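Quick check before the chapter quiz. The format below is the same one you will see on the exam, so make sure you can read both the input and the output lines.
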Amino acid sequence: QVQLVESGGGLVQPGGSLRLSCAASSSITSIFLMGWFRQAPGKQRELVAAIKAGGGTMYADSVKGRFTISRDNAKNTVYLQMNDLKPEDTAVYYCSVRLTILSDFSSWGQGTQVTVSS
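Here is the expected output.
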């Protein structure tokens, strides 16, 4: 089972940017789908962005045009570039993987806190 470690969170002012990283313990080249989720206090965990092995991406409507997901297979790492951050983006961000098209998301990381506040 692949292990995931997120990093890059922090405190940022509205309008600012952060780049999150998710480092995997093994090769991600053949992983079907890698995703970034977030969970705010009192809310359910939601899928923010995902990227397929072939590079195809999807985004939640709330982050389209502001967030960009990418993957570096050589470094076994997935990134989430977050621009024009808003207070409602405040949450713990997690990465996870769907190993195959038939599997569900699994192998959650410990999460990284993102706080957007002035």
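If your answer matched, good. Strands lie at 4-7, 10-12, 18-24, 33-39, 46-52, 57-59, 67-72, 77-82, 91-98, 112-116.
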